[in-house]
Each structure stands twice: as C-alpha cells, then as structure tokens.
C-alpha cells in the first residue's frame, strides 16, 4: 500500500513539474493578424509574417532579396524613426504615415518600431492600416450629425405647427367680425401663417421620412421654374432655354427639384444688377445636356454615383467674387448685405 501511495505522489510531482514543449516564436508571430516585419542592421528583411506579406504585396522569399529602401524612398519618415530606435534602443510609435512609391501605396499607417536586445541593430516593425477605421469614424460622425439635424427638424416642425394652426384659426374667426378696412390685416395674418408653415414643411426634408421619388421630366420642371421666376423675382430678365429633348426622365422628387432650381434662378436674377457687364439686357440661360463620365461622391461614404444629366443655370452678371469662391458650397455663405 505504501508503494502505491509513493508511486502516486511521484507521478503527481512529475506531472506538476513537467514543462510544456517549447513554442516556436515565429509560428506565434505568423498567426498574428497585424503586419510585423523584422529588419536587420542594414534594413534588410529578415522576417515578415503572413499579414505583412499581404500588406507589402510580396512574399518572404521576395522580401529577403531586397532592403526597405526598395519599397520606400529614403526621405520617408519611417527611416528616421528606425534610426532613432537604433540609437536609443527604445520603442517609438508614429501615426498617420503615408507609404507612397511605385511599389507601395498605403496611407494613414500607424507604425510601432522596437529594438531587439538579443539582436543588435535589428528592429521589429508593427504596421497598422487605420484608413478603414478613419472611414468608419467619418461615417459614424456623419450619421450622428444627420440624426441630430433630423431630430431637431422633427421637434421644431411639431412645436411650430401646433401654434400656427391656432393662430390661423383665430384669424378666420375674427374675419367676419372686423371692419372691412381691418379685414386686410386678417388676410395678412393668414398669408404669413401659411408662409411659415411652408417653411417648416421644407425643414422636414431633414427628417428620416422617406422622400417620394419617381420619374420626373426635368424640362417640365424647368418650364415651371421659368414661369414662376418671370412672374416674380426675374420679371425684368430675359430667360433663354436650350434643352436636349433626348434626355430620359430624372429619378427624383418634383417639388424638391423645383425648389432647388428656383433658388438658383432667383440667385441669378439677384446677381444681375441693371445692365450686366455693359450688355443691353440681363439674361439667364437654362440648359440641359448629357455629359458622359460625370461621377460624384456621396457625403459620408466612399461610394460614387454616376450622374450624366447636367442642368445649368447661367447668368450674364458680374460673376462670383474671389473672396466668396473658396466658400461657395458652405452653408449660409452669401455676398448679400
């Protein structure tokens, strides 16, 4: 019995003191999903894990035959960081570096460079491409801002419309009981309430309510805008039309298209002061055309949309001043006093 207990204790001690088999460090580095590169004292490639091979676009067999300056120009900040690490034997990190050369095109790279005590002159590079994270941050920020604006617009529309309905109803109740000379004032109240309500309705385009889009004849929209302008803001301006009749319908919202184009024509009419540029008569030109290859980026996304239909609103006024031109597409920028 004593022999059995002794053998059991011996087996337990051996099991507890037994060391696991050594792990190959290169196998561990190879499994890391972050690009890691080991450079010798001459910046030659001694090791690159699989993630680094994908990052650099070359296999380890190819990298072993070149040095770092074959991939990057010597004036790249990475060489200065490597030199600092070798001289100080510390770890240095830097962010938002660009690797641009005929062989390598990487932007927004974070770099961590560490010296190896066991291998004098050798440095370990850890590379992280943060461009995808930056793009995701931009999208999140854009969507957050859009939600804030849409929420504010919805609250404002709700809070403003309710008292407007009461004011308009009160004006209608007062109208039969006022003197004829005062009835003009009740009409003015109703008209102004309707105008404010229309402004609020236009603010609701910032909300998340889907916009009703359908095929729209852009030339009918432009003709409607021309009639509106010539009966009001551009009554003394000649409006010429040059349309391409072969254009297909535009997928959009008719009312929004009318509003955008009318604002452009209104701005053009206000920009023409008297006789523009010495000409005899102010003129606004409305033009449609097909322009192949026109692509625009969507805000908050890397997607680009093909937009071949071009609508041009052109006036023969003095043009945009140089101080306004750099800020032309910023909100609320104007040269009006």
Structural features:
single chain; 337 residues; alpha+beta; Beta-Lactamase; Helix Hairpins; Heat Shock Protein 90; 5-stranded antiparallel beta sheet; 3-stranded mixed beta sheet
Description:
The chain is α+β, with helices and mostly antiparallel strands. The chain has 3 domains: about 15-130, PAS domain (Beta-Lactamase, 2-Layer Sandwich), CATH 3.30.450.20; about 135-205, Orthogonal Bundle (Helix Hairpins), CATH 1.10.287; about 215-325, 2-Layer Sandwich (Heat Shock Protein 90), CATH 3.30.565. It is about 40% helix and about 20% strand. The chain has 9 helices and 12 strands. It has helices at about 1-15, 25-30, 50-55, 60-65, 75-90, 130-175, 185-205, 220-230, 255-270; strands spanning about 35-40, 45-50, 90-100, 105-115, 125-130, 215, 240, 250, 285-290, 295, 305, 310-315. The strands form 4 sheets. It has a 5-stranded antiparallel β-sheet. A 3-stranded mixed β-sheet has the order 7-9-12. A hairpin with a 4-residue loop joins β3 (about 90-100) and β4. The longest helix has about 45 residues, at about 130-175. It is elongated and about 115 Å long. The mean pLDDT is about 80.
Concise account of the structure shown:
This protein is α+β, with helices and mostly antiparallel strands. The protein is built from nine helices and twelve strands. The protein folds into three domains: 17-129, Beta-Lactamase (2-Layer Sandwich); 134-206, Helix Hairpins, CATH 1.10.287; 215-327, Heat Shock Protein 90.
